[in-house]
Amino acid sequence: MANEAIPATPPPSVWSTLARFTRRYVLRYWVWFLAGLVFLLGTSWLAVQIPLELARGIDALRETGDLDAVRASAMKITWMGVVLIVVRTLSRVLFFTPGRLLEYRLRTDLFAHVITLQPSFFASHSAGDIINRASSDLQFVRAMVGFGILQVFNVVATVALTGQEMYRISPSLTALSLAPVLLSLILVQAGINRFFTLANQAQQQLGKVSDHLLASLQGVRTIQGFNAEGAFIERLRERDLNYTETNLKMAWVRTIIMPLLPIATTVSVYLLIAVGGPMAVAGKLSVGQIVAFVAYIGSLLFPLRGLGFMVTVFQRGFNSLERIDELLYAVAEQPEGPSPAAPPARLAAIELHDLKFAYPDAPDKPVLKGLTVTLPAGRILGVYGATGSGKSTLLRLLTRQRNPGPGQILLRGEDGQAVDLTAISLGEWRRRLAVVPQVPFLFSESIEQNIAMGDPDPARLTAAVRRAALEADLSALPEGLKTTVGERGIMLSGGQRQRAALARGLYRDFDLLVLDDVLSAVDQKTEQQLIHTLLELTAPGPDGRRPTVILVSHRLSALARADKVLVLQEGGLADFGGHEELLRRCPAYQEAWSEQQEHAAESNAVEVAP
Ligand SMILES: Nc1ncnc2c1ncn2[C@@H]1O[C@H](COP(=O)(O)OP(=O)(O)OP(=O)(O)O)[C@@H](O)[C@H]1O
Ligand SMILES: [Mg+2]
Prior knowledge:
The chain has 610 residues and is of the alpha/beta class. It has a domain at 11-169: ABC transporter transmembrane region fold (Up-down Bundle), CATH 1.20.1560. 64% of the residues lie in helices and 10% in strands. The strands form two sheets. The protein has a six-stranded mixed beta sheet, with helices on both faces. It is elongated, with a radius of gyration of 36 Å. It starts with 13 loop residues before the first helix and ends with a helix. Magnesium ion (MG) is lined by residues 391-392, 438, 516-517.
């Protein structure tokens, strides 16, 4: 128990989960269910009438020999059969359709909610897990709503109507003929339980197989590069074997339980004839009634067989519903509270006050150890630091991908007012930002779509592409901006991918542009071109507005052009100042500068050497 995480809010009870689900999703289809119920009752009623008519026909034949009456009965049975087929089909369609519609709506809602959640949520839910919930769990919920509800009504209606008719004919025969059926139902139920335990197991094993396939296909070039195909095939073989074995067990269980009910029915019919036959001879029953009885046992068979599945369908449906609700009602981490403030209309500075941060999964390892500094707005601010010193983490806090503590980051407006970053509306703040992360993500769509992330505006696109120094690359691509970049941008070079992501950032209007190491894969010339873009961007606009650029880089040649540079050292602030200042007083900066200068001189020497 000690290790168990205690949920922040107690989970709602099964009943409140179900009530909320019914209110939000099931009840909107009540017309479908009501119509379905009417047709279902029609089906059950006809299923009782047909054997009765059959009994009448047989008895007429035996007792009076009135062929006209027999013919009339046959005609009636035929018509009732035709109507039964139509009514039965309609009842199914009316019950199953809302199940599908509900699945569609629930999946959309689920995606719309999950896509707004923050990194801490995705740290505890893998993509595979979320996909599972949005696919197979949803199917179980759909089965509960469609098949489950249909079965409840079906069992109740059939058992009530047919059972009543059987009881009317003979209470003792009813008890006698139902006994074997009920006994076999108990056995079948045990089998069904075992079957679904195995089915759950198979589901998880299949999940592992798919995870392995997905990861292997995504990393196929690494696997081939390291000649590791054999190991990966072996791992798949192992996982797939488990899955296959479980499926074979399931096939056995199914093979054993499936014939149980029909066998029990045969026994019932035997008992019926053995006991009912003498009763008919004694005149207590008619032959027609015995025939009707046999037909009734047959018509009870399917709903009763469905009973076991129905219980399981509801169990699994509840279970899945709870898993879906966990995503659907996951609370978005928004510490700004119910009435968030607006960010300052014009930013004068971003102030860090003893900014400390540790990732939730490594609470004992502080990544930022108390940064205090005022970053003036409207400038290019460089961030320098060794790898792992916390640069990306600082950017994540500024862009609120992670939450800083209250009062640790303040936004000061030109009017002198300061607002806590955690108190402002997340949406408002994100509208002011353009973020180009260190590992950019491209979607397998056209470059144009990747840059605009919505309806592309041609003029903006041209400007963004030019500023990101992507023009020359585009003209070499088969369809220019319309070229589809393949999964995760596989068709582009590393540098092209980086600049496409940069163009995505530059396409938007922003007050703060955050660039995490976007110069790592560009040559000297492109670097200078991009720096030029940044200088151009931070020149005052016609309204005097100047966006702020925060540029993380390892390249001091680029940072030399920044107005100020923040130097991080193992999560602490080593220095903050202009390039010349830092060269004079910051040892870490000096050292890096002379190393990089030497390196540049060497590579120039190599280039000019004959
Ligand atoms: N999601 C995370 N969970 C736990 N620890 C993390 C996470 N992301 C980063 N860290 C840790 O935080 C520290 C700082 O990482 P960060 O990515 O901020 O460094 P960086 O300065 O950007 O490095 P680089 O120059 O290599 O990009 C590292 O020690 C890293 O292991
Ligand atoms: Mg980084």
